[in-house]
Amino acid sequence: MNRRQLLQNFAALAGAGSLPAFADNSRIVLGQSAPFSGPARELGEQFKEGAMLVFDQVNQRGGINGRHIELRSLDDGYEPDRCAANTKRFIADGVNALFGYVGTPTTLAAVPLLTAAKLPLVAPFTGAEALRTPFNRHLFHIRASYNDEAAEIVKQITSVGIKRVAVFFQNDSYGQAGLSSVTAALKAQQLAPVSQGTVERNSQDVAAALKSVMAGQPECIVQIAAYKSCAAFIRAARQGGFLGNFYNVSFVGAQALAAELGKDARGVVVSQVVPFPFSGLTPIASEYIQRSKAANKDLSYTALEGYIAARTMVEGLRRAGNNPTPESIISGLEGLNELNLGGFYINFSSQRHTGSRYVDMTILTEDGKVRR
C-alpha cells in the first residue's frame, strides 16, 4: 500500500468516527454496547454513569501509565443483532478491551465475535450461567450469578413457609437463564414452580402471562424480566386482586422498577449483587456516594455496580503494562486475587473469572425507596 492510499484509508476511518485505538498511544479505548434507548435504557445509562465517575477521576490524575481511558459506548437498545453489530465495529476499530455490556441475550450474541478476536469483555451486566459455563478466558464477571441470586431468593421464600411459587420470565436467553436458576433452587427444597408465564423482550403485553401464572394459584411470584415488563405485570396482578409477594433478581434495576411502579412498588423484593449504595455502610459505598454527590449524580445500585466494575477494570489495566494489549489486560485481571475495593472483594485467577458471589436482599417502598 503506498503512502497516498494509507492516508486516504486513515482519513476515511477518521471521518466515520472509527479511527483505530492503536493509532493513538495516548489512550486506552474500551468498547461498551448497552441499551441507551428503549425500555431498558436506564440500566445502560446508570451503569455507564457509575463507571465514568471512576474513569474521569483516573484521567484527571494522568490516566494509566500516562494513557487516558476512553469509554466508547454504543446503543444496542437491548437487541442482540445490534449488539453484535456494535461488537464488530469495536473489533474493527481496534479497541483494547470490551466493558460493561448489558443483558444476557445481547452479551451472548457478542461472545463468538469477541472470542474469535481474542478480546476480553469485563463486567457484563448479567448473571447467566451460559456465560460462565463452560469457562471462557475472555469473559470476566464482577457480579454474582443468577444461580446465587435465585438460591438466596428461594431461601427467603421458604423460610416463611411459602411453597407455591410461580415464575414470570422474559421469553429469551435471559428469562430462560433465570427460570433455570429458580427451578434449580426450588428443586433443592423439594419444590417446583406451580405455574409460569412469559413476556417478549421490550414488551409490556402481559395479559397472557398473567392468566397463565394465576392458573397455578401461587403464593408468590419470582420475576425474570426487564423493569418495564415486570412493572406492567405487577400492576396487572394487583388490579386482579393478587396479594402475594413479588421477587426480582438484580438485573431488573431496583430504582428503575420503583420509579415505574410508584405506590405499587410497596413490598416488592429485589436481590442485589453489590452493597447498599445509599449510605456508607461499606467503604466502597462511601467512596461512591462522595463521588456521586460531587458530580451531582443520583445514587443507584446499577451505578454502584458500574463504579465497582470500573474500579476493577482500572486495577487490571495498571497491571497490564505500559503498552496494554488484550492479552496483557487478561493477564492483569487474572492477577486480581483477593482485591479489596473497600469491603467488596474481587477474586480472579487464570482458572476463575467470576470475581464475586455477593448477594443481598432489599425491599421497595411506596415512596420509591429501596430498603435493606
Describe the structure.
The protein is of the alpha/beta class. It folds into 2 domains: 3-144 and 282-358, Rossmann fold; 146-272, Rossmann fold. 42% of the residues lie in helices and 16% in strands. The protein contains 12 helices and 14 strands. It has a 7-stranded mixed beta sheet, with helices on both faces. A 5-stranded parallel beta sheet has the order 2-1-3-4-5, sandwiched between helices. Strand 11 and strand 12 (345-346) form a beta hairpin. Helix 8 (227-239) crosses helix 9 (254-261) and helix 11 packs across helix 12 (326-334). The radius of gyration is 21 Å and the shape is globular.
